[in-house]
Every structure is written in structure tokens, then in C-alpha cells.
Design brief:
By secondary structure, the chain is of the alpha/beta class. The protein has helices at residues 11-22, 56-63, 83-104, 145-164, 185-202, 206-224, 228-231, 239-243, 248-254, 266-278, 300-307, 328-334; strands spanning 2-6, 26-31, 47-50, 68-71, 108-114, 131-132, 167-173, 175-177, 263-265, 284-288, 312-313. A seven-stranded parallel beta sheet has the order 3-2-1-4-5-7-10, sandwiched between helices. It has a two-stranded parallel sheet with strand order 6-11. The longest helix is centred in the N-terminal third of the chain and has 22 residues, at 83-104.
Length: 346
């Protein structure tokens, strides 16, 4: 089977291509970079061609002869391009991919959506989930161009199922971690520090905890209303991050909380992609795929009750260090189960 992988030279793409090639797929990769700019050996076993997904005829030409498509090409965060350019690449580019698939009779597309289709990490306001763990039925509340684009590409998948019968899976990926990150000594030290910060926070009186969180929320909202992620080349250099440099609890509140401490190993992201390609599915599906544990290995019920007091908490699903985002639907439809834990005892 021949599969086209757009954005296959990116972080997630490299892991996907590696897995598909190893499992006997014929893989054709396209990306914005010229072939000479792709590191030698990075796409071992796959072909590569430069292709601008905003140019429909170019996409059509590269897709000829393929049986399915993995669509990963996108601007991956709000500051990666001006909003209009980001929208054109992420949304119009996705339309081109599906339109080419419809014209050529390709009947399976797997695409990268994002946990941010909910409207979380890059939000210009507070994060207030209705219930936990979050699942695919949760309302979408996007407030930044990247998150909006990911919500819209899911709807493009729905449209092409209704119009042309293309079965598709939109994978709501969280932070995708390199395979060595969970065991990296520096990362493990950071996890220990954050767990200690949370332990100290929980030792405070309830009134002190509520006052501290109310103050952090007010600070975070003021800064987020300035749209810091749209001004920075990277979220790591955003004014929001700089504001909490000397406040470990503030960093936890203003950053980790806004992605619900959720991540996935790159190899499990690739696993989810291949399962979505091969599963016996009709229709268009949006699925969360993430590790079954939160990356702190911390009691999930405590995190939910302390940091999202307004949410309805389904405690039976949040035992121990469970994830605050449910991947149950992906398990049922794809047989997805994480194989590479993002949390190791530190």
C-alpha cells in the first residue's frame, strides 16, 4: 500500500514515516523544504518531494498513485506565521488535501488535529472545562488562530465524508514528546520539583490555596489577553512564560494546567496514525490520543479538584495518576493503547 505523508519531515512526521516504512508501507513524503534541506537519512526508506499544500494542483500531482493519506503538514503554533498565512496553510491546505483525495478516489485520510481544537493552551482567556476527564463531546471554545484552524480541519473531514464518502480520522494530539524525554535526567528532576511544589501547595489551608489560585488566574488572564503566543517565535519565549520565571506554582498554573498535563510519546503518536490508517472505519472521526497517565504521575483527582473546581469531575475515571483527557474512544475504535509511558518514577 502506498501512502502520502504530508509534513513527513516534521517532528511527528519522522516518527510516523519510520513506523510505516518498518511495517512495509510504501511511503511518499512531501513538505515545504527542498530535498536538499531534509537531513540525510531522516526519511530512510521513503521518497521525498517539495510540495506547497496551498497549491491544489501540486497536491494532486503528488497524491497520484497513493491509496491513503496522512496529513501532518501545518503551522504548529500561533506565532509560527501571521494569522492569515497560518489559516491558509492549515485550513485551505487541508481542504486541498481532501479535495485531491476526492478527485483521485482516495478513501482514507488520517490527519493531525490537536488537543488545542478545544481551545486550551493558546487561549486568550481562562481554561474552564465543563467536566473531567475531557472527551470528544466537550464543547469547543477556540480563541486563537491555530486552535481555530484545528477545529476547522476536523469539520473538513466531516464535510468530505458527507460529500464524497472519504473515511477520515482527526487525531487530537497533545504535546508529542521525543522518545528519550521521559527518561531524561533533567526532565525527571523537573518533575520531582513540580511534584514537591504541588505537595507544598496542598499543605496550605483551603483558604490560602483558593486565594493563591485566584491570584494566579488573574495574572494569567491579563497576560493571555495580550495574545502572547501570537507575538512569539516560540511559546518558550512568550511574555507569559517570562512573567512566571521565579514562581514554580505560577508556571504550573499558567502552562501545564492549560494542557491538562497531557502528552504522548512520538512512537505512540505514530502507532495511532497507523491504526487509524488500517482500522475498519466508516464516517469521519475525531479522537483524542494520549498517554493514559498525566505526565506528573500525580493524583488526577487532586489535580482536577484543585485546579478546575468549577468542573464536574467523574472521579471513577480519575483514579491514581490518570490522564485528565480520555482516549477511550480511540481505544474502542482503533485498538489504541499507549506503549511508551510519558511518566517514569523520578
Amino acid at each position: 500500500m502506498r501512502v502520502l505523508v504530508t509534513g513527513g519531515a516534521g517532528k511527528v512526521g519522522l516518527a510516523v514515516v519510520e513506523r510505516l516504512v518498518a511495517h512495509g508501507w510504501e511511503v511518499a513524503v512531501v513538505g515545504r523544504r527542498g530535498a536538499a534541506e531534509v537531513p540525510e537519512g531522516a526519511l530512510h526508506g521513503a521518497s521525498y518531494a517539495a510540495c506547497d499544500i496551498t497549491q491544489y494542483e501540486d497536491v494532486l500531482a503528488q497524491m497520484r498513485g497513493c491509496d491513503s493519506v496522512v496529513h501532518l503538514a501545518a503551522i504548529p503554533y500561533p506565532g509560527g506565521a501571521p494569522a492569515a498565512e497560518l489559516f491558509a496553510i492549515n485550513v485551505a491546505g487541508t481542504f486541498n488535501v481532501f479535495e485531491a483525495a476526492a478527485r483521485l478516489g482516495v478513501r482514507r485520510v488520517v490527519q493531525a488535529s490537536s488537543i488545542n481544537a478545544l481551545g486550551c493552551f493558546y487561549s486568550v482567556g481562562e481554561l474552564e472545562p465543563d467536566y473531567l476527564p475531557v472527551d470528544e463531546l466537550h464543547p469547543v471554545r477556540t480563541t486563537d488562530p491555530y486552535s481555530l484552524s484545528k477545529h476547522l480541519v476536523e469539520q473538513i473531514g466531516d464535510y468530505y465524508w458527507r460529500r464524497d464518502g472519504i473515511a477520515s480520522v482527526s487525531l487530537r494530539l497533545p504535546a508529542v514528546w521525543r522518545r528519550e524525554r521521559a527518561s531524561d535526567p533533567e526532565h525527571r528532576a523537573r518533575v520531582r520539583e513540580q511534584r514537591a511544589v504541588l505537595d507544598a501547595f496542598l499543605a496550605l489551608s483551603e483558604g490560602s490555596r483558593r486565594a493563591r489560585l485566584a491570584d494566579l488566574s488573574a495574572q494569567a488572564v491579563v497576560l493571555r489577553r495580550m495574545r502572547p503566543f501570537e507575538q512569539a517565535d516560540s511559546w518558550r519565549s512568550s511574555p507569559l512564560r517570562e512573567a512566571f520565571t521565579d514562581d514554580p506554582l505560577g508556571r504550573i498554573y499558567a502552562f501545564d494546567r492549560f494542557v491538562l498535563w497531557t502528552a504522548i510519546d512520538e512512537r505512540d503518536a505514530a502507532q495511532a496514525v497507523e491504526r487509524a490508517l488500517t482500522a475498519s472505519l466508516e464516517s469521519s472521526h475525531t479522537l483524542f490520543v494520549n498517554d493514559s497517565r498525566n505526565w506528573l504521575g500525580y493524583d488526577a483527582l487532586v489535580l482536577a479538584q484543585q485546579f478546575f473546581p468549577q468542573a464536574t469531575v467523574y472521579a471513577s475515571a480519575l483514579h491514581g495518576p490518570a490522564a485528565l483527557v480520555s482516549a477511550e474512544r480511540a481505544r474502542r475504535l482503533l485498538g489504541f493503547a499507549p506503549e511508551y509511558p510519558i511518566y517514569e518514577e523520578a
